[in-house]
Amino acid sequence: MTVEGQSAWGWLEAVAVPVFENLAGLFGPGSRFFLPYLVIAIVLAAIAYRINRQRLPRPARKGFFAYLFDPAVYFHPSSLVDLKVVIANRLFTPLMALAGGGAAAASAYFIASLLVPEEAINADRIADIGWASLAAVTLAVTLASDFTTYWVHRLHHENAVFWPFHKLHHSAETLTPLTFARKHPVYDLIRAVSNAFVVGPVQGVVFALFGVVSVPVILGVNALYALFHWTGSNLRHTHVWLSYGPVLSRILISPAQHQIHHSLAPRHHNTNYGEVFAFWDWMFGTLYVPKEYEALEFGVVDAAGNREAQPHGSLKAAYLVPFKESFAALSDREKDAGALSPTPPAS
């Protein structure tokens, strides 16, 4: 091979390998799309189908696999946009990791340094922490993360300037597991940085108490989040109705509750913001627990409750329209503020 050929191959390898590894990460243990998580989702979907079959619309009674892998769902134009956004967003993965992980680590070390000497933070004290304490640490970090998710999610729904960046997620007219990652990079960036102000301090207290200790993981994932995936997280963005019942649904967000969050029906608006835990919604008055199976339609509506035309019909629109709508909302807010401001005194 010529030197030129070697250089060309080296350049190709330098570019292609990281891209391939990044895309492959979509299906790794840290992703909802990890094969075992998808398999358990299919098993749970089969159970849910058997329970709800007689209440489903008649076309859904043709058989389980015809129902689960409905071509009208997976080949809908909305679902194809999901795929494009998911692949394109992999370009931002390093930025999100740096912004989220870096800011949270800096925050954690800052808080820890206020509580104990620096040498105590980095000391190897892992032997001093028992399983009960380790479980408590895992729960505390998970609660902090989920609490952040609740409020970032709610902010994007209830603030006109932030809503356009989350609207991309809700403009999905059909739900598939890929819809989970149909998110604008701005939303993901705000979520990642927000962890620095909530999860970071919690980790800082942990560092002060036990030194630098990591929470237990299963296949590289926080143990509680791994359990969340093993219990059907992929069904949250599907048409498969799986409810946890009136009691457990006040503790954990069921797939049915998250589907309700995506519903066009006015009675469902601004409910079920939680990701893992439902008690945030219960505490702050946004919980909706279904009493029985409910037929749902997905998408976004205008202020009058009418379905909006699809605003994100292409990858370009998915990325650019939120900026346009957010700037318009910000401009309207400034105009309203100006109209309400007192007239400046004459000089």
Account of the protein in words:
The protein is built from 15 helices and two strands. It is mostly helical. A two-stranded antiparallel ribbon has the order 1-2. β1 and β2 form a beta hairpin. α6 runs parallel beside α10, α8 packs across α9 and α8 packs antiparallel against α10 (185-210). The termini are far apart. Residues 1-23 and 339-347 have low confidence and may be disordered.
Task: Looking at this protein, list some descriptive labels.
single chain; 347 residues; mainly alpha; two-stranded antiparallel sheet; 15 helices; disordered N terminus; disordered C terminus
Using the CA coordinates, give the radius of gyration: 23 Å
The description of the largest β-sheet is: 2 strands, antiparallel
Helix-residue proportion: 55-70%
By oligomeric state, this entry counts as: single chain
The chain-level mean pLDDT equals 83
What is the N-to-C succession of helices and strands?
A: HHHHHHHHHHEEHHHHH
Derived from helix and strand composition plus strand pairing, the structural class reads: mainly alpha
**Count of the domains:** 1
Segments where pLDDT lies below 50 for 5+ residues?
Answer: 1-23, 339-347
Strand portion: under 5%
Strand arrangement within the widest β-sheet reads 1-2
SS summary, helix count: 15
Count of strand segments: 2
N-to-C CA distance: 80 Å
Shape: globular
Question: What is the compact description of this entry?
Answer:
This protein has one domain. 58% of the residues lie in helices and 1% in strands.
Would you spell out the secondary-structure blueprint of this structure?
Elements: H1 3-24, H2 35-52, H3 64-68, H4 71-74, H5 77-89, H6 93-115, H7 118-121, H8 131-158, H9 163-170, H10 185-210, E1 217-218, E2 221-222, H11 223-230, H12 245-248, H13 255-261, H14 279-284, H15 315-340
Antiparallel strand pairs: 1-2
Helix pairs in contact: 6-10, 8-9, 8-10, 9-15
